[in-house]
Design goal:
With 348 residues, the protein is an alpha+beta fold. The chain has 3 domains: 75 residues, RNA-binding S4 domain (Structural Genomics Hypothetical 15.5 Kd Protein In mrcA-pckA Intergenic Region, Chain A), CATH 3.10.290.10; 80 residues, Pseudouridine synthase; 163 residues, Pseudouridine synthase, CATH 3.30.2350. Helix content is 19%, strand content 26%. The chain is built from 8 helices and 17 strands.
Length: 348
């Protein structure tokens, strides 16, 4: 059975389905496309069928972040759809977030740590669902890119389909400038400026007796690894920071990513022997406990600066989000003053 996207999918299907992607969905990520198409299917299940290879694009396996093209044919496995209550759309509470910029094409928010950008993986809702509830008159709101749940800082949301595809093209073609602030353990060598190490994703073992896989992780692998994805990270030391009496010496880094791999910054820095302070997946757990006593109860990774070309005006935009209070509290005043200097579109 072949469907054209735009037709309402059957409420419950127990057979293989084939869906053809129309032009208006070109450039959208596979997972986001399926979330909207497979109403009633839990997001955790959507990710599971993608990871297992049961979802195919033009007969080939695909990743959650695969970008769709007009005319792509998707194969979906048999799915039992759970009917949702009529008021399920209101499950996400309305919430606005601090605005860094807004116009007719897009908005840029300063995302707090601890908030997922979207629902899924055990989260009922995230930033985008809360924004849609808060703005019921908005005809279109879509995430341009993502940030880890525990990462704070600049997040772009498109208000038009044309803006979404134009901005995502810039991210994909590496035409944006994305710089993060990261506090890492120890003294990062000042001459260690380029990290060019392939990454691969893997799953931790699931709980005993459970058919569910464990959490997703990422690691550095050899270039000839079958799942290797090139990842390039640029690092600049901004300051050395002492946090007495423990846990000791740290380095504040400006980190610019040239590729947007999952957990790229976290894994690259940790693999170099300098994990991010407070990182609960790749960090030093004993050191993290000491940091919690100093008030750091999250990962010290902040999406600080973002440069891109406005999709409508063609103007080069330069945004900056200051460190949130819980991270400022760990920084000496001279460091905070240096960080407050605004970014311009001509520098980074």
């Amino acid at each position: 059975m072949k469907n054209i996207i735009g037709a309402k999918p059957r409420p419950a299907a127990a057979e293989v389905r084939f869906l053809t992607v129309e032009g208006e969905f070109a450039g959208q990520r596979l997972d986001n496309f399926l979330f909207r198409t497979l109403k009633g299917v839990p997001k955790t299940h959507v990710y599971r069928i993608i990871r297992s290879g049961e979802v195919r694009i033009n007969k080939g396996r695909a990743q959650a972040e695969t970008r769709l093209e007009a005319g792509d044919v998707l194969r979906l496995p048999p799915l039992r759809v759970t009917e949702r209550p009529a008021d399920s759309a209101a499950a996400a509470p309305a919430r606005e977030f601090p605005l860094l910029h807004e116009d007719d094409a897009l908005l840029a928010i300063d995302k707090p740590a601890g908030v997922a950008v979207h629902g899924g993986s055990g989260m009922s809702f995230g930033v985008i669902e809360q924004l849609r509830t808060a703005r019921p008159a908005a005809r279109f709101l879509e995430l341009v890119h993502r940030l880890d749940r525990e990462t704070s800082g600049i997040l772009l949301v498109a208000k038009k389909r044309s803006a979404l595809t134009a901005l995502q093209d810039q991210f994909r073609e590496r035409e944006t400038g994305k710089t993060y602030l990261a506090l890492v353990e120890g003294h990062w060598p000042a001459n260690k400026k380029v990290l060019d190490a392939p990454l691969a994703r893997y799953l931790l073992p699931g709980k005993p007796g459970s058919p569910e896989p464990g959490e997703r992780r990422v690691r550095v692998v050899a270039k000839d690894h079958p799942d290797a994805m090139r990842a390039v990270t640029l690092v600049k030391v901004l300051a050395r920071v002492s946090l007495p009496p423990e846990p000791g010496e740290f380095s504040l880094l400006a980190v610019t990513i040239k590729t947007g791999r999952t957990h790229q910054i976290r894994v690259h820095l940790a693999s170099g022997g300098h994990p991010i302070a407070g990182d609960d997946k790749y960090g030093d757990f004993e050191r993290n406990r000491a940091l919690q006593k100093l008030g750091l109860k999250r990962m010290f990774l902040h999406a600080w600066r973002l440069q891109f070309t406005h999709p409508a005006s063609g103007e080069r935009m330069a945004l900056q989000a200051e460190l949130p209070p819980e991270l400022q509290a760990l920084m000496p005043q001279p460091v905070l003053e240096a960080l407050a200097v605004p970014v311009s579109s001509s520098n980074d």
